[in-house]
Amino acid sequence: AIHESELLTVPDGWKEPQFMKEDNPRGLLEESSFATLFPKYREAYLKECWPLVQKALGEIFINATLDLIEGSITVSTTKKTFDPYAIIRARDLIKLLARSVPFEQAVRILQDDMACDIIKIGTLVRNRERFVKRRQRLIGPKGSTLKALELLTNCYVLVQGNTVSALGPYSGLKEVRKVVLDTMKNIHPIYNIKTLMIKRELANNPDLRTQSWDRFLPNFRHKSLSKRQKPKKKKVKKEYTPFPPPQPESQVDRELASGEFFLRESEKRRRKMKEIKVKQAEALSRKQEERKKAFIPPKEKPAEKKTKKASTEDKLDIQAIKEKVKKAKNKKLGAPPPKPAAPPADGKKKKSRS
């Protein structure tokens, strides 16, 4: 019995048989055609390589016309066309040529195992500067990132304006699309390239064909960006009430409450003047107090305590000096011999001083 996993895998060295004239001897029933516009800057190149394009398409019996006035290329089937998929390949060829892919690369789309993908990246990033930066990141320094991607996916990749054109086997195109879209989502292509390198190594091991590769693949985590700062004081929302707040009292309401509203005009004026005079008197007394402050002498600390402390300290110092002198005399380190009459004289002098 053949194992199920063996049925799902394509045998090594398998090649799809080519579609020949004998497979469809009567040709196609109706004419199909596709057209595409190309930019003005592409005109010179297309004019130069057009004979080669016609020759390549002529081999699969596809008719191609170049309209330089309108700026378009049209491909259509002929009575001799036998391969129904040939027109789709021709359509992809003119699409690639319009997207600045060189003819030598674009012509490979006519092969059976080749496919192409034109990835639109122009609308993925709003900010133009950011878009240019990320697109450059995909190309890398001196095109190294793009070259690595091409080698790992076996695809030809061209970054041009707002699109990325890729040409190669289906499995490779799938990877290219993922890398391109991730780069535009601000995931550096080097992470995906590293994963692709590991996958390539794992693919060489036949034992791992039926196993999950998750344990081997790196798990790149996003760096947690600084969270939004929360305010120190949180405002507590009041409970919703359907009733509006009470109306503030007007001047008239206040006057009615105090009975002032019913007074005569002259009485009102007299009251107002009285209030103003009271306020003025308060302000004047306040100012006078502030002026007087400058003439109030500051409180002095009592001077007696300081002198007492000083005297006690001096006494202590004198005694310490005396002891030091005595010690020096006792040691007699090169000092002259003490005179017997000297100590009483000191005492006398001290007595007279006191």
TrEMBL record:
Transmembrane segments: none annotated. It is found in: Nucleus, Nucleolus. The keyword Ribonucleoprotein applies. Residues 219-354 are annotated as: Disordered. GO terms for cellular component: small-subunit processome. It holds the Pfam family KH_KRR1_1st. Residues 220-237 have a biased composition (Basic residues). Residues 115-185 form the K Homology domain. Residues 251-268, 275-323 have a biased composition (Basic and acidic residues). Its main location: nucleus. CDD domains: KH-I_KRR1_rpt1, KH-I_KRR1_rpt2. One of its GO terms (biological process) is rRNA processing. Keywords: Nucleus, Ribonucleoprotein, Ribosome biogenesis, RNA-binding, rRNA processing. InterPro entries: KH_dom, KH_dom_type_1_sf, KRR1-like_KH1, KRR1-like_KH1_euk, KRR1-like_KH2, KRR1-like_KH2_euk, rRNA_assembly_KRR1. The keyword Cytoplasm does not apply. One of its GO terms (molecular function) is RNA binding. PANTHER family: HIV-1 REV BINDING PROTEIN 2, 3 (PTHR12581), KRR1 SMALL SUBUNIT PROCESSOME COMPONENT HOMOLOG (PTHR12581:SF0). Belongs to the KRR1 family. Part of the small subunit (SSU) processome, first precursor of the small eukaryotic ribosomal subunit. During the assembly of the SSU processome in the nucleolus, many ribosome biogenesis factors, an RNA chaperone and ribosomal proteins associate with the nascent pre-rRNA and work in concert to generate RNA folding, modifications, rearrangements and cleavage as well as targeted degradation of pre-ribosomal RNA by the RNA exosome. Part of the small subunit (SSU) processome, composed of more than 70 proteins and the RNA chaperone small nucleolar RNA (snoRNA) U3. This is KRR1 small subunit processome component. The lineage of its organism: Eukaryota, Metazoa, Chordata, Craniata, Vertebrata. The gene is KRR1.
